[in-house]
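This section describes the prediction task in plain terms. A model, or a person checking by hand, is given the sequence of a single protein chain and must write out its three-dimensional structure as a string of tokens. No templates, partner chains or ligands are provided. The sample shown here is typical of the held-out split.
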Amino acid sequence: MSEPLSGHVEVDETYVGGKRRGGKRGRGAEGKTIVFGTLERDGDVRSWVVSDVKRCTLEPIIRSEVKEGATVSTDELRTYKDLIKFGYEHGKVQHGVGEYVSGIHHVNGLEGFWSQLKRGIVGTHIHVSGKHLPKYVGEFAFRYNNRKRPGEMFERVIRNF
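The expected answer:
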């Protein structure tokens, strides 16, 4: 198991799936698969396909993956409101009112990762089923986490087989 993320950590979720004409976008959109992630600023990303964004689903992941005392930046999702009780310094941005940065708090790094993931799926794979999405999410996290060492990436893949 990896060491918990520390320092300043961004926490966010995204929805992956086909486009629906006239349907709802984002949270609550039909037919979407939820991907949850954490990103240590200037460090690694970790991501998981999750069943929902309820507190009972996401809090245990945050508590096991993010070191107590870390600064955690999130959006306004109510699931994150109790993080301060677990020893985190918590700040949020309110995307719903057009706020994307609040002092040191933002989730722009993780939003960039989500953008790469979605562009990679649409541009390369066209469509990915929810059943296989965890494998693709893992691949994109691996690439992101090895972006500063591209020459070692192939060897790392081969070594893990």
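For orientation: Helices lie at 55-65, 108-125, 133-145, 150-159.
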